[in-house]
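Title: Comparing notes on inverse folding

I've been comparing how different people in this forum approach sequence design from structure. To keep things fair, I'm posting one structure and asking everyone to reply with a full sequence. Here's the target:
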């Protein structure tokens, strides 16, 4: 079955009287969700004891944990200091993920520098990731680096770039942010055919198993000519992409993704809304069979 959950702690979590991220597994189980992406965007600042306690709570409540690595990571850098810093951030992310029982770490690939061609930047990412796969990952078996599709056109991370990078090693998998793809395509995802095309391209590049077990970020998104501006919420309306067509495909093809809502402050409510849409389509598919 697919898993649904929020990125970080939503407003609803605090309004329900909870205060610590250690309580998230209990909260999510209570509302009916079963995934949680712990946010380390501003740095990995969690102690081992905290991580182990979170792992224990997640196991108790059947919550799948993933971790979002720091935004400071730039795999495309040519600066030795930034390269060393990015390596250290990845290492700390892997340690935290291991201790909290997370099998997936979401990583931003980086940006194209002003003095760099896009292809040159991609080659640097490839070299960096190959070194990570050879020297860092072996100490953390069972953990995948999920390279995220990005929302701004000047960022590395369109779909083909992510597929290309994920071919480098078995420890790499895509984190498909459909809102980001929608934004960098300036409103590219409007219906079922658009989702079908994206999944077909992943299948062609990485195989059916990659499609079946995708790590997904999903939220409505506001965009401009340069791509992503900000994440919005489902209740606002008027912002794409729509989730219903993807829910229909997931139910029809019996896919088992982890789907993380990144809606602004309402990620719990929106994760529940996506889960409900999926269940409706799953019910219809069951009735047809």
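Reply #1:
Here's my take.
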């Amino acid at each position: 079955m697919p898993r649904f959950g929020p990125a970080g702690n939503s407003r609803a979590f605090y309004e329900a009287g909870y205060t610590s991220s250690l309580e998230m597994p209990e909260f999510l189980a209570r509302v009916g969700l079963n995934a949680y992406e712990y946010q380390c965007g501003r740095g990995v600042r969690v102690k081992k004891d905290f991580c182990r306690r979170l792992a224990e709570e997640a196991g108790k409540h059947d919550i799948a944990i993933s971790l979002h690595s720091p935004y400071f990571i730039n795999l495309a850098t040519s600066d030795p200091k930034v390269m060393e810093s990015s390596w250290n951030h990845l290492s700390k992310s892997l340690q935290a993920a291991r201790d909290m029982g997370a099998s997936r770490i979401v990583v931003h690939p980086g940006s194209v520098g002003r003095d760099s061609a896009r292809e040159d930047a991609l080659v640097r990412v490839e070299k960096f990731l190959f070194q990570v796969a050879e020297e860092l990952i072996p100490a953390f078996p069972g953990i995948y680096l999920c390279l995220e599709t990005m929302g701004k056109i000047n960022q590395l991370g369109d779909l083909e770039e992510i597929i290309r990078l994920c071919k480098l090693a078995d420890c790499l998998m895509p984190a498909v942010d459909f809102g980001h793809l929608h934004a960098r395509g300036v409103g590219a995802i409007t219906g079922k055919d658009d989702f079908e095309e994206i999944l077909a391209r992943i299948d062609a590049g990485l195989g059916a198993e990659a499609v079946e077990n995708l790590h997904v970020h999903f939220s409505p998104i506001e965009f401009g000519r340069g791509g992503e501006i900000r994440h919005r919420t489902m209740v606002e309306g008027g912002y794409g992409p729509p989730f219903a067509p993807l829910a229909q495909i997931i139910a029809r093809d019996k896919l088992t993704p982890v789907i993380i809502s990144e809606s602004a402050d309402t990620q719990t409510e929106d994760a529940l809304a996506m889960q409900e849409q999926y269940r409706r389509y799953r019910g219809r598919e069951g009735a047809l069979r």
